[in-house]
Amino acid sequence: MIPTLEWTQEGVRFLDQTKLPLEETYVLATSYQQVADVITTMVVRGAPAIGVSAAMGIALGVKQSKAATIPELAKEFDTICNTLAATRPTAVNLFWAIARMRDRFAALTAQAGITRKAVADALIKEGLVMYDEDIAACKSMGANGAELLPESGGVLTHCNAGALATCGYGTALGVIRAAVERGQAIHVYADETRPFLQGARLTAWELMHDGIPTTVLCDNMAASLMRQGKIHAVVVGADRIAANGDVANKIGTYSVAIMAKEHGIPFYVAAPWSTIDLATPTGDEIPIEQRAEIEVTHHAGKQLTPHGVGIENPAFDVTPAKYVTAIITERGVLRAPYAESLIVLEAAAAAN
Fold first, then answer.
1. Within 10 Å of residue 263's Cβ, how many Cβ atoms?
2. Is the pLDDT confidence value at 91 over 90?
3. Which side of the chain, N or C, has fewer Cβ within a 10 Å radius?
4. Angle between helix 92-109 and helix 70-85 axes, rounded to 10 deg
């Protein structure tokens, strides 16, 4: 298991993904403000990992609070949650995790005579439970999705939806890992994923770490490889899935989905249930994070573009549900029409 993040007595320890693949170093965030910065600067990234990171950041903030009373703590708690909520607007797992910690805090502070330390200890435990749940969800997702991949052949993925984007194992790469563990001869084609190069830097690094055959390709090469018959399936992750099955994922995913449809290649999305946002009707309502221009204008500290040129840098795009062959979750595999299958699976889970 690649140690994406972990709780320690000193703070939350993160593998610095901005330094991969050439340097494996770690960052220790010793305050909730530092956890927020780690999320914003993409030291940690990936919707599931962001959610658990925020939960641990909240627990850290409460642990370090000097509030003398529970009402004072409640006011500070609200500031902590709001700070972390402002880090990445598209990943719904962030808001799911914060809402879960808010609910836990409300239940704890409603108890007569509870101490700040008792609240902090309980929130730390909740963050650790969420960490374990994420790994379990990824493994279930892998088991549910592995049989959808070919017994042998090329599988394309975009961005990084692996162990590095979660607490371990991965979503899209978890499906690939599970297929390889079953004996399927998968060769992964990893889009480099401009401009932050998560595919070239991160997906390639962790798949090579696991001995899974991997080839990196420039984003504009995917259609050509599909036409040559080298790609037999596409599997990606997601940062938010709307109630109708529209999927927000790393910028460039939409074009990959269109190309897959044109070439008759199945396009799968793997994501935990916490990524599904039934309160958002369609992808049109998903907020898209706009990131700094320097990610496009510069690479490794070197300027690539003319001074003063206009820059667009949306971090995500939305793939309409009509391009999605199936959505793989820890609860099962969903097929279109997603507006119906999502509600059915949600009701089944609630009944259990």
1. 16
2. no
3. C
4. 180
The fold adopted by the segment(s) 5-140 is: Four Helix Bundle (Hemerythrin (Met), subunit A) (1.20.120)
Going by the DSSP 8-state scheme, the letter that residue 331 receives in this structure is: T
CATH 3.40.50.10470 fits 146-351, yes or no: yes
pLDDT at 300: 82
The overall average pLDDT reported for the chain is 96
| Euclidean distance between CA atoms 120 and 118, whole angstroms | 5
| pLDDT tens, position by position, 242-252 | 999 999 999 99
Q: Residue 300 has what DSSP assignment? A: T
Nearest in space to 248 (alpha carbons), one of 313, 319, 339: 319
Closest C-alpha among 152, 159, 232 to residue 197:
159
- pTM value? 0.93
Nearby residues of 118 by Cβ (< 8 Å), 6 or more positions away = 108
pLDDT surpasses 90 at 317: yes
Tens of pLDDT, residue by residue over 15-46, are 999 999 999 999 999 999 999 999 999 999 99
Assess contact for 166 and 4: CB atoms under 8 A. yes
What would the mean pLDDT of 209-224 be, rounded to a whole number?
97
- Torsion (CA) 98, 102, 103, 108 in degrees, nearest 10: 140
Mean pLDDT throughout 96-107?
Answer: 98
Give residue 299's pLDDT: 87
The ranges assigned to domains in the chain are: 5-140, 146-351
**Distance between CA 4 and CA 14 in Å, rounded?**
6
The reply to whether domains 5-140 and 146-351 share a CATH topology is no
- Distance (Å, whole) CA 207 – CA 52: 23
What residues form DSSP beta bridges with 248? 240, 318
Sheet holding 214-217, edge to edge: 214-217, 185-191, 152-157, 233-236, 267-270, 326-329, 332-334
Tell me the C-alpha distance between 110 and 128, whole Å: 22
User: At 5, which amino acid appears?
Assistant: L
Instruction: Report the b/e string of 272-304 with b at 16+ CB within 10 A.
Output: bbbbbbeebeebeebebbebeeebbbeeeeeee
